[in-house]
Each structure stands twice: as structure tokens, then as C-alpha cells.
Amino acid sequence: MPLRIADLLARPELNLSVTYDVPAGQLDRTVEAATVSDLLHPGKWLQGGELLMTIGLVLPMEPAACRAYVQDVTEGGAACLALGLGRGLPYQKAPAPLVDAAREAGLPLLTVPDEVPFIAVTKAVFDARADEQRAVLQRAFATQRRLTAAATDSGLQPMLEEWTAATGVGATVLDPLGRLLATGGGQSAPPPAARDLVERVAARGLRGSASSTAGGRQLEVQPLGARRLRGLLLLVGSPDAAARAVVPGLVSLLSLELERRHLMDEPERRRRSALLAELLSDEEGPAGRAHGILAAAGLHDDRVRGVVIEPAAAGPADSGPHDIAADLALAVPGGLVRVAESGLIEAVVGAGLDVRDVLGRFAPHCPAGIGPLAPPDTVRVSLRQAAGLLGVSRASGVPEEARQSAASRLLLDLGDRRTLHGYADAVLGPLDLADHGEELLTTLAAWLETGGAWDATSRRLGVHRHTVRNRLDKAMDLTGRRLDDPDDRFDLWLATRIRSGGDLRAGGPGRP
Questions:
Q1: Where would I find the beta strands (DSSP E) of 146-263?
Q2: At 50, is the pLDDT very low, low, confident or very high (cuts 50, 70, 90)?
Q3: How far is CA 483 from CA 444, 487, 493, in A?
Q4: ∠ CA 453-456-459, rounded to 5°
Q5: Parallel, antiparallel, or unpaired for β 50-54 and 80-84?
Q6: What is the DSSP string of 29-40?
Q7: How high is the pLDDT of residue 15?
Q8: Considering the chain, what percentage of its residues have pLDDT values greater than 70?
Q9: Residue 305: which H helix or E strand, with range?
Q10: Which residues 6+ apart lie within 8 Å of 398 measured at CB?
Q11: Tens-place pLDDT, residues 228-264
């Protein structure tokens, strides 16, 4: 426990006394050190928290002079003032002007009796401070031993629970994307106020920690990992000196555990890499096969996209293809990642993933292509389109995402049946899933075949032109396209032609 003024007053060997009825709160002030000065203006020589002792040798006893002296001591940060009394000294008891000035300023004023030398008070203060520091170290060592013992259980949770039990400070481990991995002592999910702090530290990797205060609680984030960022430690609360001394040990133990997990996950990463290779190996596999492969990896999305990354040639030694692929495998839930024979990194990810954020975290400055969303059976198309954008990304310096208008031109070059039908599914898929989707597709195809003629489409379908317009408005809402956009119109025309089995080279009004 910190040394308080009350603790010094309780020591019988010092026989210190208060000169007025000091409020209890003032006697709880912490004493950091003890010093002696008979200067008239000692404040500038103080650092704060001192027990300042004086015999008042040069102190005038006029009320104004006493108030000025006490103000100087208070502004210097002294915890309290002690006046030495005794034979041969200026004062045998505390003078009233000094007592009044101290009372007005809220500065505790003590007296030191004649039989107690100032050095005895000084030694008592520093002995108490040494005892306090020993106690801090003992608590720190005890906490560290508890954490080390918990680490042998091979888990994050035991360490976090021991930390919280020993320190009272909440602790949570997050993955590099801020997702919860473990929390200790019944702590809930990270407070919303910690989100910006977590993102700021994660963006810097292993280069530093950060802290802030929100809602009266101290928040601190420490990066975890050896060579690469494996996770983040969030502390919620104010660690005391003993807990603060253990934070580096906690960070080390958690980092070791995350590195151990990373090594143990290597077989799973290889399995997923093999699944991706299997997914891409057979162009003419049975329907639903891709769904089964993705489900085996834990990816159940109906729409997925391909991502291709070219590792930076001038990157650090620990940023090679396999390092980046391992990071992506950790960051992409249910996703498949592999390093192809070409050295490129290929991944298949779900629709809900913020791909640009992941690339910015784990593959910064690397050329990358992001394919469009597609049904699982046609994800090869998305990967091919992503690979085709690497040159553009290399020139622009940022990841490039496939535009559907550009995708149709790539598909014409690829030319195989499965690829083309996969593209058509990617474009028209939202209509396949909609109520009366077949009706919407028929109306769209007819409108495109007539070159966008409303009356001709109405006559061909035998419905009112307003019905045609309503159907097409709904189709555009579902697909996110615009009929007045030439690129969108081309994509829609190409997709409907593929579905109908028509000649892609055929001309016609309104066709590109």
C-alpha cells in the first residue's frame, strides 16, 4: 500500500502531531518522499508528493507572509508541511499565522518534536517506500507465476482468468481483425469505445501499443505475436504498479500461445489449400460439387468471390507468399487460401468479407485483384477475372476490383461453355432467386432482343407496356444494373444470350 500521511502519524517512534483538525481525506494523501528546506520559496525545488520539513528559520510570522509561503509550498505539490520544534530552534510550538495559512490552503501542517531528528522521519519515509516497492515486486512475481502456470494449460482463457483474478483488470484477446478469441473473468465483449483503439493498433502491426480513456475506464491495447501480428490484447481498467510490471510477461505468454496455435493450424491450412486446388481442378465437375467443397471448409455462402495476390518482390523476409497466405487463412472465416505454383496467392472468400480491409492489413503494397461475386460452381470465373487485374493493380498501387462490364469481355476471350454459363449465372443469379424470376428473365430478354422497344416488347409478350416497365424496374433493382448504362446493358444482353444458347456474334438492334 502507498505510504500515507496517516501512516506516518500512526508511527509512535516519530511522535508527529497535527496542528489543526485536518480532514481525513487530506491525511490519506500519498507521501512519495521526504525533504528538508528552510528556503523562503522552496516550491520550485519540489517534484510533488513530498513531506517538506522546515524549522522556519527565515519565515516571517506575518499572516500575509505565511499565506505566501504556504501557497508556494502547495503549488510545488508538497503532500504536507512539517515544522520542527525544540530547544534552540525558532519555535517551540506551531505559530498561529502559519497554522491559519495551512488550514486555509488545505495543506496538512505537522510538528516534529525535539527528540525526533529530521533524518529519522526521512528514513521512515524511504523505508516505507522500499517496503512498498518490495511488496509490488512480490505481487508481480506471484502474478507472473500464476500466469505461467495457467499457460501450461495451453489456452488463452486460463491465462486471462488468472490475470483478471490477480489484478482486477479486464482482459480480452482479439484476432487481427478485432474478432473475439477469448476473454477472462466473465468479461463481456469489448466495449464499443475500444473499436477505434483496436483498429489503430492493428493497422500498425507489432510496432506499438495505444491507450485511451472512455466512460471513466482506461483502455489499453497491446499487439501480440513474434514476427507477425497474431492478435491483440485489450485491457479494460487501471493496472496498479504490480499489474503494470506484469503486462510485458502477459503479452509474451499470450504471444507464445498464439504462435503455438498458428503452428498447430498448419495441417488445417494445408487441408484448405488442397480443397481449393480440388475446387479449381475440374472444369466440368458435377453440379453442387463446389458447394460441397466450400461447405467442407465451413464456407456456406451462396455467393463467393475470388481474390488473387502477387507478393511484393521487395517486401520484408517474413512477408513471402506462404506468410501472407497463412495470415489470410487466419483472417478469412471459412475461406480457402493457397499459394499456386506460379507463386501467386489465390483465395475464395464469402460475400460478407471486407476484402479491401483484409488486404490492407495482411498484404499491404501487394498487387491484388478482386473478382466479382459468383455462385460457388462458377468461382473459377471470379478467380480468373481477379488474376487478370493484377497488371492494373500493379500500375495503380491499390487492389483492383473487377467491374462486371469488363468481366464480359474477359469471358468472351475465355470462351469455354462452363465459364460462359458461370458468368451468366453471376449476372442473372438475383433474378433466379426472385419471385416470378422466370417472368422477369423472359421480359428482360425480349426487351433486349427488340433493342429496347417498349411497344414491340409489349406486343411480343402480350402484356401492357406499363407491365413491361414494372417488370424491368424490378429486375434492375434486383441486379443493381441500369438499362441506360451501355456497359450494364451489354452484360445483361450477353448473359441472356448465353442462357438462350444463341450465337454471341449475332447482330441485332440495340445489341453492342
A1: 170-174, 180-183, 210-214, 217-224, 231-236
A2: very high
A3: 10, 9, 10
A4: 145
A5: parallel
A6: -B--EEEE---S
A7: 94
A8: 90
A9: strand 304-309
A10: none
A11: 888 999 999 888 888 888 999 999 999 999 998 888 8
| CA 337 – CA 349 distance, rounded (Å) | 9
Whether the predicted pLDDT of 9 surpasses 50: yes
Residues recorded for the chain: 512
CA dist list (Å): 188 to 234, 314, 456 = 12, 42, 63
- Which H or E element spans position 80? strand 80-84
Q: Which residue has the cell 481525513?
A: 24
Q: Which three cell numbers stand for residue 493?
A: 444482353
* Residue 245 burial class via C-beta count within 10 angstroms: exposed 0-12, middle 13-18, buried 19 and up: middle
What is the rounded CA–CA span in Å between residue 491 and residue 407?
8
pLDDT of residue 401: 84
Amino acid at 192: P
Output the nine-digit C-alpha cell for 423: 458468368
Q: Which residues of 89-98 are buried (b: 16+ CB within 10 A; e: fewer)?
A: ebbeebbebb
Q: What is the pLDDT of residue 117?
A: 94
pLDDT greater than 50 at residue 503: no
Hey, what long-range contacts does 33-38 have (CB within 8 A, 24 or more apart)? 33/125, 33/126, 33/129, 34/121, 34/122, 34/124, 34/125, 34/126, 35/122, 36/118, 36/122
The rounded distance, in Å, linking the Cα atoms of 464 and 474 is 16
Letter string b/e over residues 179-203, b meaning 16 or more CB atoms within 10 A of that residue's CB: eebbbbbebeebbeebeebbeebbe
Write the secondary structure of 335-360 as one string of H (helix), E (strand) and C (coil): CEEEECCCCCEEEEEECCCCHHHHHH
Per the CB < 8 A criterion, the answer to whether 242 and 139 are in contact is yes
Query: Which ranges of 106-240 does DSSP label H, i.e. alpha helix?
Result: 118-151, 156-167, 195-204
Does residue 281 register a pLDDT over 90?
no
Cell digits for 304?
A: 463467393
- Which residues are 339's β-sheet partners? 345
pLDDT at site 284? 55
Q: To the nearest whole number, what is the mean pLDDT of the chain?
A: 84
Q: 507 pLDDT exceeds 50?
A: no
Helix, strand, coil in percent for the chain, rounding step 5: 50, 15, 35
Q: What is the pLDDT of residues 440-481, one digit of tens each?
A: 999 998 888 877 888 888 888 888 989 999 999 999 888 888
The model's confidence at residue 48, banded by pLDDT at 50, 70 and 90, is very high
What does the DSSP 8-state code read for residue 173? E
Handedness of CA 184, 189, 194, 199 (dihedral sign): positive
**Contact between residue 117 and residue 36 where contact means Cβ atoms under 8 Å apart:** no
CA 357 to chain centre: 12
